[in-house]
Amino acid sequence: MTKNWVLVVIALLALLGARLLGASLQEQRVECGISDLARSEELTPGEFLGTVAAGPIRAVPTAFLLAGGMDAFQRQDWHHALAIYDLLVQLQPRLPAVWMQNGWNMIVNVAHHSFEAGEPDQAYEWVLAGLDHIRRGAERNPTNAEIRFYYGRMLFRVGRKDILKKEVVDYYQRRFGDDDRDPLQESLTHFDLAAKINPNFAGHHEMQGRVRIQLAHRELKNGDPERSVELLRESIPPLLEAQKIVTRVMESEEIPEENKAAFVGFNNNLAAQVDFAEKMINDIMAREERVEPSDSH
Length: 297
What we know:
Elements: H1 2-32, H2 45-53, H3 59-74, H4 78-91, H5 96-116, H6 120-140, H7 145-157, H8 166-178, H9 183-197, H10 202-221, H11 225-252, H12 257-290
Helix pairs in contact: 1-2, 3-4, 4-5, 5-6, 5-7, 6-7, 7-9, 9-10, 10-11, 11-12
């Protein structure tokens, strides 16, 4: 047991040292105009020590840190959890769940705590940090649809007034606008990519359709019915594809009785979204047809 703890301490000290080394190397690369290796498929110094160099002992600090992270979450010690999961991504950069958990902690827990403490600017910075963290995790795992979808969900989430307080959403949206960013539009890019990576998951297609409907609402409100109709038409195929997947699962697999209602409800929701999109298209088209072009005098 004592030997395991020694190995854990050595591994953690090595990872901490690698983080400092990585930061120094990155500064030198920037100064010399060399590309950012952290964005490539090559391992960072911390990841090298955490994966290749750690080798067979990697499981020991990984298990230790996972337990510590869970304990920190249960105690709602968000900053301690951040430090633990930051080390975990050095040990397990190919484990999407670690990136997602840490990103969630920044975007939801730490940011919320900062906002409630009267520090909205700091809260927004934590949201950006969390999004960037998940993005880097997605880049580290380019063939994983789950983390790409999760990144889209987090972008989608920051604009949801049914999840966050209105004043929080309004503040975030204003700050994103100041930074010339559109989280809703960005989320669609990642939902589309997730569906491309894994076309057999209904949730990917559902979000492709749902976000397009929301964007269509916004375009109509902004006075662009043509673009609104275009988005609505684009929303229907992925929603129908999601229906096909759900129906296929319901017909071909044994679904526990307690889960059947959820599948039926999801399928009904998909059908309702398709109906809504079609009705909205018809309403916009009818409205446009009633508008007579004004004669020049």
